Amino acid sequence: MSNEILLLSGPNLDQLGVRSPEIYGTQTLAEHVARFSEQALREGLEVRHLQSNFEGDLIEAVHAARESSIAIVLNAGALTHTSWALADALATFGGVKIEVHLSNPAAREPFRHVSTLAGVVDGTIAGFGATSYDLALDAVIRLLARNR
Ligand code: DQA
Hints:
alpha/beta, Rossmann fold, five-stranded parallel sheet, 5 helices, binds 1,3,4-trihydroxy-5-OXO-cyclohexanecarboxylic acid
């Protein structure tokens, strides 16, 4: 059985570190991914990461994950609020699915209050900065243990 978590990062997350650090913090995406991957490896889980600014790349990665991954952790960036196509793709993935955000979209502009993805994932973790990724990994581990 696979031990792979697909970690997906959507549009503009490649700009972390320089993009609105007062909201998203100063850590780069590479730093978040390295920390997440190291912690996952300690639990015997491998991480494959993809960042894309293109919706279709993320959708195709979700499709491919049906064959390769036991869990998807995704920060879809602003696609969270707009992409029914990404939600439809996620609905086809039968493994563990966690939506993650560095900021707390519910406490920000009204357009961020809607998530197209929230209804097709196991749960959402938002608002804890870098710790959101730690909590997402913890959630994956607990859900995998429960489903075993
Ligand atoms: C985000 C929140 C989204 O509203 C925003 O568009 C992002 C980042 C977060 O991690 O807080 O790009 O997903």
